[in-house]
Design goal:
The structure holds three protein chains of three kinds. Chain A is of the alpha/beta class. Chain A has helices spanning about 5-30, 45-50, 70-75, 80-85, 120-130, 150-160, 210-225, 255-265, 265-275, 285-305; strands at about 60, 140-145, 165-175, 175, 180, 200-205, 230-235. Chain B has two domains: about 5-165 and about 305-335; about 165-300, Tumour Suppressor Smad4 (Sandwich), CATH 2.60.200. In chain B, the strands form three sheets. A seven-stranded mixed β-sheet of chain B has the order 3-2-1-4-5-18-6, sandwiched between helices. Chain B has a seven-stranded antiparallel β-sheet with strand order 12-13-11-10-9-15-16. The relative contact order of chain B is 0.16. Classes of the chains: A alpha/beta, B alpha/beta, C alpha/beta.
Chain lengths: ~325, ~325, ~325
């Protein structure tokens, strides 16, 4: 696999930033400082980071309700993200979207989404647009095992293959659709198996190993960029926390032993071990990355807490666009 | 004790990155389920009604037993579900302890390697559902099941229709011994990553238990230069690299690559080859473990691997013995 | 006949007005494309895209699978990344198949993203009963979408409106739903050859009058004009107003009329209960209560699915006679 030390360190840094962002956000939600519900990405960091290091700002992604990790990995502004979680006027969405709608169109992040399965049709639209406009941009559609049961996924997969669109379907199979275990919500266990039904390649990838994600995503993205059509990548991963919030153990729908077993393959720990083995990342350097991430997150939290709430008058703004594209 | 057939279907086989970087076939789990079901029916037709299997977490084998009939007994062998090759290795150990008479596996070289790590000289009917397969064969599940049943029940003796295959032993100081059924490779790679091998530039040294010119994968590199069948009591060493001759070999399905080769020579059984780190040790086509700088892996080919059942031979013997022949009176009685 | 804009010189049918508008819009802006079921090769089942494939090719006139959610999402993704899509949903009834895309995604993305998104997307569809297509191909569901902040909804009443509103919709930087009525596709009227816009959010006084206001949408506009002619004999000078855009609604024009006429009735083809007429009536009463001499009347379809049999369907459909009868009833004149 061709990967420079710089990219390896970048991969690690993005994962640590997601982990830190999510852990701190979870605590603030539990403390009642962040309103609403947060669906946290802890445990799945290797997927977002391993995919995103291949993408340019002009490449798009569609995200999910568990979307913070995607935007952090795509280079999102942590201050604007936290301000949005806090419902402040300085947030990415001026406090109108919150966690489930966090977005950055300039970075090609077409939004987290509160509707499970909403991403795939939007992703093929962006991919259609990339092709239409003659660019070699690629769209990556993140979705989960739960969303793979929505009709939207199947419609989009069919259309992507039919039109040979530059899109990569990145399934984050964390084993649960909300609180329902995968074997209780679908009869197939490898979502990649479904790819053949639409005429595209589908492969299963270890979603806990950032290097495996990196290698597979690199091939699929290159294939899309070259105009060879879509790919379905199924990343086997695990949600360390609950569907909402930070509690991961002592829940009714899974055994603690299972959580502990998956935590043995913690993606952050795994990549740190791999990089340490190669002499690329010393324990001290790894600790420094964690500290820097924590400093950035704390700065973002301070920014958010110091930011004003939206003016009540903002309620009725941003519903419609006033400008016109064509005279 | 009634003869028992063991069944192991690797849910992960046939789904790796070679479907993307090469043109490998997809084996979806529904197809694996159908193959297992046909194999069960084949074994039942051969007189077997006792089965044990590896619970695969995907319900492949359990589903294949659904509505199979009241006379057929089947039991899952408990194993900690790590969703890795470790499950297969542990189930192999359990099957040996259980006294299973013949094992039917669905997977590729990697699946059978994991099995052999738990039960090295297991009697195996290996059905190919993997990617680059040398050890398991493309054989119809029905017939594979029948052959497994005939061997398990002793109607065809194991020694009559099987051969103990060569394997590559891997020994690393201070670590657990390892094994490859077909090939062990030292690669210029730092990471296990997506596991499969498709970049010939990374190949350094190859040790082959067999070098098959009709194979796809690492075995073909040696096989196209100096064929060594499993029947020959030698292994093969290939030193890749250099600016000299090369071989055009299909290192993944549909993927022909030019592999520069410095040296090819036969290895006597038991002759030790050393791989010195840093590098990545790949076994049976998958990047498995990293060798730190200075770390030494000692490899040797020996004929002490699984007893691979020759399915066509089993069926020929069964036919000669009239094992599926039913006399007119019996047929009438059965009505 | 139904417009006051220009003298009638060139008369073309409604269906051709749409096709002409599409062609002109695609010529003026390379980012405009049309996607939908059978819009390309077949030229749409209603003929509204006939000829476009030949001129603009399959990249800009895109036949899609029968996948309304997929098509609608494709429109959104394309609009969010710089294109100006027109998504054709063959029958308005099918909007129910892609409600998430329309209601939760397209309408809300701008707001949810704090204003950063711009979604210049046109949703083009056909509503209305009268063709014996029964309950799933005949509905008028415009009220659903008028209820969703972020969407604009227009409902052309004839060929002139069809072209002008479509041009305005496509040029607008917001999601606009164009709700045509299939039974008036053959209606002929003057349509200027050059491209022109009818401004969104502006109502049109179709027939000036002094002592009664009928506010009608879509096909009910021409029916209301007929009703107005019938009511001349009753001594009524009916003003007919076509809001043209239902969302945003031009309250001002309507209220001005009612302040003058003191009596009003709203008419639409959709089911009366919960129809857009209820909102119009409420607005009239809020803004002109003191001017009203009678309750605001409402004509719409009865609260039933659209029936199949022509006899039942005729009973179902509002028309000029039913409008005139309701006006007389409001005024205490039994027919």
């Amino acid at each position: 696999m061709d990967i420079s030390n710089g990219v390896l360190l970048d991969l690690h840094r993005r994962m640590v930033r997601i982990r830190t962002f999510e852990e701190e956000a979870g605590k603030l939600m539990e403390a009642g400082k962040i309103p609403g519900a947060l669906h946290l990405y802890v445990g799945e960091e290797a997927v977002a980071a391993g995919v995103m290091v291949h993408l340019r700002d002009s490449d798009q992604i569609t995200s999910t309700h568990r979307g913070h990790g995607h935007l952090v990995a795509k280079g999102g502004d942590l201050r604007k993200m936290y301000a949005e979680l806090y419902g402040r006027a300085t947030g990415y969405c001026k406090g109108k979207g919150g966690s489930m709608h966090i977005s950055d169109l300039d970075l090609g992040m077409l939004g987290a989404n509160g509707i499970v399965g909403a991403g795939p049709p939007i992703a093929i639209g962006a991919a259609f647009s990339n092709k239409y406009r003659g660019t070699d941009n690629v769209t990556v559609c993140f979705f989960g095992d739960g969303a793979s049961n929505e009709g939207t996924f199947h419609e989009a997969a069919n259309m992507a293959a039919l039109y040979k669109l530059p899109v990569v379907f990145a399934c984050e199979n964390n084993g649960f659709g909300e609180f329902t275990r995968q074997e209780r919500h679908q009869a197939v266990h490898d979502i990649a198996d479904r790819a053949a039904g639409y005429g595209m390649p589908g492969i299963v990838v270890d979603g806990m190993d950032a290097l495996a994600v990196y290698e597979a995503a690199g091939e699929a993205i290159a294939r899309a960029r070259a105009g060879s059509g879509p790919t379905l990548l199924e990343f086997k991963t695990y949600r360390f926390f609950d569907h909402v919030g930070i509690r991961g153990m002592g829940v009714i729908y899974r055994e603690d032993a299972e959580v502990l077993q998956w935590r043995e393959r913690d993606p952050v720990g795994l990549v740190e071990t791999r990089l340490a083995e190669q002499g690329i990342l010393s324990p001290e350097a790894a600790a420094a990355v964690h500290e820097a991430a924590l400093a950035d997150v704390r700065d973002a939290i301070a920014f958010a807490e110091a930011s004003p709430f939206p003016e009540p008058g903002a309620l009725m703004e941003d519903i419609y666009t006033v400008s016109r594209g064509v005279a | 004790m009634r003869p028992t057939v063991g069944i192991l279907a690797n849910p992960a086989s046939g789904k790796d990155i070679r479907r993307l970087v090469a043109s490998a076939s997809v084996f979806d789990n529904r197809e694996k389920l159908s193959i297992v079901r046909r194999a069960i029916l084949g074994a039942v037709a051969a007189g077997i009604d006792d089965f044990v299997y590896m619970p695969d977490g995907h319900g492949i084998v359990a589903s294949a037993f659904a509505d199979i009939g009241e006379d057929v007994r089947f039991a899952a062998l408990d194993s900690p579900a790590t969703h890795s090759a470790l499950d297969t290795t542990r189930v192999a150990e359990r099957m040996r302890e259980h006294g299973v008479a013949c094992v039917l596996t669905l997977g590729g070289d990697g699946t059978n390697r994991a099995f052999a790590l738990g039960w090295r000289d297991a009697p195996l009917v290996a059905v190919s559902t993997g990617t680059n397969n040398v050890f398991p064969k493309m054989v119809e599940g029905t017939i594979a099941g029948a052959a497994a049943g005939l061997v398990a029940s002793g109607q065809v003796a194991l020694h009559e229709a099987s051969r103990q295959v060569k394997v590559v032993h891997v020994q690393i100081d201070g670590e657990k011994d390892d094994l490859a059924l077909i090939d062990a490779v030292l690669l210029d790679e730092a990471f296990v990553g997506a596991r499969a091998i498709w970049n010939p530039a990374r190949l350094r040294t190859i040790v082959l238990a067999r070098a098959e010119p009709s194979a796809v994968g690492i075995s073909a590199i040696g096989g196209l230069l100096h064929p060594v069948p499993d029947t020959a009591d030698v292994g093969l060493l290939v030193e890749a690299g250099g600016a000299g001759d090369a071989v055009i070999a299909p290192i993944a399905p549909g993927l022909y690559s030019s592999v520069p080769v410095r040296e090819v020579r036969e290895l006597a059984l038991g002759e030790v080859v050393e791989f010195v780190g840093p590098g990545m040790l790949a076994l049976d086509g998958e990047r498995e473990r990293r060798l730190r700088p200075g770390m030494v892996a000692r490899l040797a080919v020996r004929r002490d691997g699984p007893r691979a059942v020759d399915v066509p031979l089993v069926m020929r013997l069964a036919a000669c013995r009239g094992l599926f022949r039913v006399a007119q009176s019996e047929a009438t009685d059965g009505d | 006949m139904t417009t006051i804009e220009a003298p009638a010189t060139r008369e073309i049918p409604y269906v051709s007005a749409i096709a002409e508008a599409f062609g002109q819009l695609m010529r003026e802006d390379p980012n405009v494309f049309i996607a939908g079921e059978d819009v390309a090769l077949y030229g749409s089942v209603f003929g509204v895209t006939r000829g476009l494939l030949k001129e603009f090719g399959p990249q800009r006139v895109v036949d899609t699978p029968i996948s309304e959610s997929g098509i609608m999402g494709l429109g959104l993704g394309a609009a969010a990344t710089g294109l100006r899509p027109v998504i054709d949903i063959m029958f308005m009834d099918f909007m129910a198949v892609c409600m998430d895309e329309v209601v939760n995604q397209i309408a809300k993305i701008k707001y949810m993203f704090g204003g950063t998104a711009r979604i210049p997307l046109t949703i083009h569809t056909m509503a209305g009963a009268g063709t014996s297509m029964a309950a799933q191909h005949s509905q008028s569901l415009e009220a659903w979408f008028c209820h969703i902040p972020g969407l604009k909804v227009v409902m052309p009443s004839g060929p002139y409106e069809a072209k002008g509103l479509l041009v305005a919709a496509v040029r607008d930087d917001n999601p606009v739903m164009v709700v045509n009525t299939k039974t008036i596709l053959g209606m002929k009227a003057h349509v200027p050859e050059q491209i022109y816009e009818i401004p969104l959010g502006k109502a049109n006084v179709v027939r000036p009058g002094s002592n009664f206001t009928i506010l009608a949408t879509g096909r009910m506009v021409s029916e209301s004009v007929k009703a107005a002619e019938m009511l001349v004999a009753d001594g009524l000078d009916v003003e007919v107003i076509d809001p043209r855009t239902l969302q945003p609604f031009d309250t001002e024009t309507v209220v001005q009329s009612v302040r003058k006429t003191h009596r009003a009735l709203v008419a639409h083809e959709a089911v009366r209960f919960g129809g857009i007429g209820a909102e119009f009536a409420a607005q009239i009463q809020e803004e002109a209560f003191d001017y009203l001499d009678a309750p605001v009347g409402r004509v719409g379809a009865p609260f039933t699915p659209v029936p199949f049999s022509p006899v039942l369907e005729k009973e179902y459909m509002p028309n000029a006679e039913k409008i005139a009868a309701e006006v007389r009833r409001l005024l205490g004149k039994q027919a």
